[in-house]
Batch of 2 targets.
Target 1
Amino acid sequence: MILPIRAFGDPLLRKKAVDIDPDYPELKTLIDNMFETMNAANGIGLAAPQVGLGIRLFVIDISPLAEDEDYKDIADEVRVFKKVFINAKILEESGEEWKFNEGCLSIPEVREDVKRKSTIKIEYYDENFEKHTDTFQDIRARVIQHEYDHTEGILFTDRLSPLKKKIVKGKLQKIAHGEVGVTYKMRFAK
């Protein structure tokens, strides 16, 4: 089932999410619905707060990037990078900071360069509640950091310079008031 994505301005997007346990109701169905919602919106990541749930869960599928010329060196890894992250904790961020033009399904029509570290070490549970500690680099680390931020109540626009924040302020206000054209289901703040 495709779920409505919460738009910028929804207070849930600003709250730190809580851990869940293996008995979380309908977890498998929720994960399936999140992947379906993300795919329908042409996204590569989606966090539970974006669909109205204040829990530490996000899904990622960057396989659509495998055909992008920018990722030809890691196309095989990208092609199969579809993961579920539950109760994730970033343990370490390292490497050089690099800029990348980010967007967000909750903030349509806004894209800006964001600096993030190139490598992360993260602890998380998968969809079967098996615990993992993994290190990720490149675009994989970038997408994980972006979705992880959602579980911390942080949006990519929070990481912009003061000048860039001023530039996008008007667009953000329009999104908060539902003045945006999207091809996927959205729920706007009241």
Note: The helical segments are 27-40, 75-79, 138-151, 162-176.
Target 2
Amino acid sequence: MNKGELVELMAVKAETTPKAANALLDAFLDCVTQAVADGEKVTLVGFGSWEARDRKAREGRNPKTGDKMEIPATTVPAFSAGKQFKEAVAGSK
């Protein structure tokens, strides 16, 4: 499912226009992105949570040459699925 398909489905479920659903989805994504970038954890009970995690510096290899290289430490976004989300996905198979 891509963003357009998600917006269409949201519009149907919320009984609104695709334009309004798109605006709400964009606002949601902007809010989560900004909060995580500011170091906050965003939690939707049952669905999951987003947070920033620190990744340590490590040694890697250049895939073309095989030479060793240092990969610097960085902060990355992370998502952890909630219990209800996990159960829904596991139960769908």
Note: The CA atoms of residues 51 and 78 lie 5 Å apart.
